[in-house]
Specification:
With about 325 residues, the protein is α/β, with parallel strands linked by helices. It is about 40% helix and about 15% strand. It binds uridine-5'-diphosphate-4-deoxy-4-fluoro-alpha-D-galactose. The site of uridine-5'-diphosphate-4-deoxy-4-fluoro-alpha-D-galactose (UFG) has 20 residues, from α7 and β8.
Length: about 325
């Protein structure tokens, strides 16, 4: 029995594939390589199908020919700012794409799915740490599409008995400890890779988006979680789906500790032992001041325990990737 991973050539997808293979699972990857990297799939040495999840017939064919038992679904657009500029592209790719995937699963009789969701489903937090029952009022189309998919999964459970676990990640960072896979986005917007590229001299400086937030040092606070800890949560979610009837569940994944942008700059300087020049710029629109997860539910239900508990070890892991792959997969 095999697990289908959509978006398995992407950042969190490829690390999850590595984790599953390391635990003896059989995996096939589906990716349209719009954002993913063929090099990542090659490094994983896993059966790979290059097509879009909106191709329902192709999905059904792969599900039947590989006797797929469960799906782990990452394939999506995930840039908050871009989603505000081109919302329909996000609805077409994320929501319509997932509808095709779920229809293919129903057709092929595959009834278990782990879904890559996000903290962006909550919107501006009313209380910290954020628990799963926090009101869900996304402030951008990206979060809206992920929430719409979570609701779609609920209705697929109601109508077809499909079993799903949605995992709402906070800020993913870091890289695989040994394999040549890591974080590489065409247009990098994330804090830790931008800082490390600045340390490497790929960028002249880094811009802090606002120092006038109501936090101790005025910069935004986030909960950084190592990508291999996210990967292990997917593996444990699959295990839970195999052993229980869960309906449609959702769990937060974060460390539960918040770090400000300045904390991350200082930690990145300490890890890299290099200067990282920065300027303070305007706030980026749509950035909440503080996002910190409560992951207590995941710890109990999935028996998940994140291994990378401190910021320095997460940055060290990302640094190891960036140092050896300063141009990402283009090296
Ligand atoms: N930041 C800067 N300068 C930069 C880039 C980022 O100061 O050049 C700051 C941001 O303002 C934010 C923090 O660094 O406070 C982290 O920003 P990221 O862009 O790395 O991550 P986000 O918190 O914006 O986004 C993450 C995920 C999204 C998810 C979101 C949930 O990447 O997928 O959390 O709100 F939607």
């Amino acid at each position: 029995m095999t697990i289908m991973v959509t978006g398995g050539a992407g950042y969190i997808g490829s690390h999850t594939v590595a984790e599953l293979l390391e635990h003896g699972e059989e995996v096939v990857v589906i990716d349209n390589l719009g954002l993913g990297h063929e090099e990542a799939v090659r490094a994983l040495n896993v059966p790979f199908y290059h097509f879009d999840i909106r191709d329902r017939d192709a999905l059904v064919h792969v599900m039947r020919s590989h006797t797929i038992e469960s799906v782990v679904h990452f394939a999506a657009y995930s840039q908050v700012g871009e989603s505000v500029r081109v919302p329909l592209t996000y609805y077409q790719n994320n929501v319509a794409g997932t509808a095709e995937l779920l229809a293919a699963m129903v057709e092929a009789g595959v009834m278990r799915i782990v879904f890559s969701s996000t903290a962006a489903t909550y919107g501006e937090p009313e209380a910290i740490p954020i628990g799963e029952n926090h009101p869900k009022r996304p402030t951008n189309p990206y979060g809206e599409t992920k929430l719409a998919i979570e609701r779609m999964l609920y209705w697929c459970y109601s109508a077809y008995g499909m079993q799903s676990i949605s995992l709402r990640y906070f800020n993913a960072a870091g890289a695989h400890p040994t394999l040549p896979i890591g974080e590489h986005h065409m247009h990098e917007t994330h804090l830790i890779p931008l800082l490390l590229q600045t340390a490497l001299g790929v960028r002249s400086h880094f811009t802090v988006f606002g120092n006038d937030y109501p936090t101790a040092d005025g910069s935004c606070i986030r909960d950084y979680i190592h990508v291999m800890d996210l990967a292990s949560a997917h593996r444990l979610a699959l295990k839970r789906l195999r052993h229980r009837v869960v309906g449609a569940e959702a769990f937060n994944l974060g460390i539960g500790t918040g770090y400000s942008v300045f904390d991350v700059i200082h930690a990145a300087r300490a890890v890299t032992k290099r200067e990282i020049h920065y300027l303070v710029g305007e706030r980026r629109s749509g950035d909440p001041a503080v996002l910190v997860a409560s992951s207590d539910l995941a710890k109990v239900a999935l028996k998940w325990e994140p291994k990378y508990q401190d910021l320095a070890s997460i940055i060290e892991s990302a640094w190891n990737w960036h140092l050896h792959h300063p141009d990402g997969f283009r090296d």
